[in-house]
Amino acid sequence: MKTLRPMDDGRSAFTLVELLVVIAIIGLLVALLLPAVQAAREAARRAQCLNNLKQLGLAVHNYASNWGCFPSSAIVDRNVQATGNNVSWGVHGRILPFIEQVPLGSQVNLVEAWDSQLVIDGVRIPVFACPSDPKSSEIRDTGAGKPRLYPTTYGFNLGVYFVYDPVTGRGGDGIAFPNSAVTWAGVIDGTSHTLLASEVKAWQPYRRNGGPPSTNIPASAAEASTVVASAGEAKTTGHTEWPDGRVHHTGFTACLPPNTRVPCDIGGRTEDCDYNSWQEGKNGINGAPTYAIVTARSFHPGGVNAVHVDGSARFYAQTIELPVWRALATRAGRELVPNQ
């Protein structure tokens, strides 16, 4: 009697070596594809960031059409000896009705301190944050009984270095400063050659309230680091209070090119820092002048997005020449700005 054998269908199983080769090939393809996917995601985030800046530019246009001037960085009462730490709203709060936040804008009181108005508690406004900034969604607890706030990653142009003198009321050379009322006609350098806003980083370390050792504008990161070291207070909360009108929250300055690293000591650690020589309005008519090194920064490789006064937005490389970057920040410096 013959033994029956199963029919051979011509198929054979993978060997272990073949399986390992296939896995290695798949791993190699993934390794090759991953950077392309990450680059595509970053390109999409950068495009969204640029669109956010365009919306902020349009909002400022609508504000100017409604009020006849661009929004002030803060409103400071020069007749009082001292003002509250968070007494004045910044540009972000003043344009709320023009960024599809009419209900919120109608509930806030711009003449009262923002830190007593819980209507803004936990409110996240997407157009205020770049999706590439990993800390843009980290909420800030500003204290008991005060609103919790999401940071902003966009700062408005407060000029090159000098911001405000409470004694004379003189303001800086940017689009906004305390008590400013800059009009279209006041942008003598041209709206297409003047910056309105640029990217900044959320939760940026900074030092404040010490006064600059010199009113000369620092020309390098090393000089800026010396100035920053003169300040008394060290913080790690820059641009985390979008309603606040102080330059380290609402603005940026063009003292240094984008993404310039300014080393300073924060609690024994070396951090990349910003600087405010004296908080605007903190001691009213007795206050010292405000000089600021609040650098435009981003998490986009190689530079920052920015929007001009005319509403056009573009990417600026961090290799931009310093005189050109500063010229873009002045509204009436009469500099010749080459096509970028």
Number of helices: 6
Low-confidence stretches: none
Please give the largest β-sheet: 5 strands, mixed
Report the strand count.
Answer: 14
How many structural domains does the protein architecture include? 1
User: What structural category characterises the helix and strand content?
Assistant: alpha+beta
| End-to-end C-alpha gap | 93 Å
- What is the 3D shape? globular
Average residue pLDDT: 91
Describe the model:
With 340 residues, this protein is α+β, with helices and mostly antiparallel strands. It has one domain (42-329). 24% of the residues lie in helices and 16% in strands. The protein contains six helices and 14 strands. The chain has helices spanning 16-67, 91-94, 102-107, 221-228, 247-250, 322-329, and strands at residues 140-141, 148-149, 154-157, 162-164, 195-199, 204-208, 233-238, 251-252, 263-266, 269-272, 274-276, 290-293, 303-308, 313-317. Strands 8-3-5-13-14 form a five-stranded mixed sheet. A hairpin with a 4-residue loop joins strand 13 (303-308) and strand 14. The N and C termini lie far apart (93 Å). The mean pLDDT is 91. Residues 38-321 form the DUF1559 domain. This is DUF1559 domain-containing protein.
Structural features:
14 strands; five-stranded mixed beta sheet; 24% helix; alpha+beta
Question: How is this structure best summarized?
Answer:
This protein has helices at 16-67, 91-94, 102-107, 221-228, 247-250, 322-329; strands at residues 140-141, 148-149, 154-157, 162-164, 195-199, 204-208, 233-238, 251-252, 263-266, 269-272, 274-276, 290-293, 303-308, 313-317. The protein has 340 residues and is an alpha+beta fold.
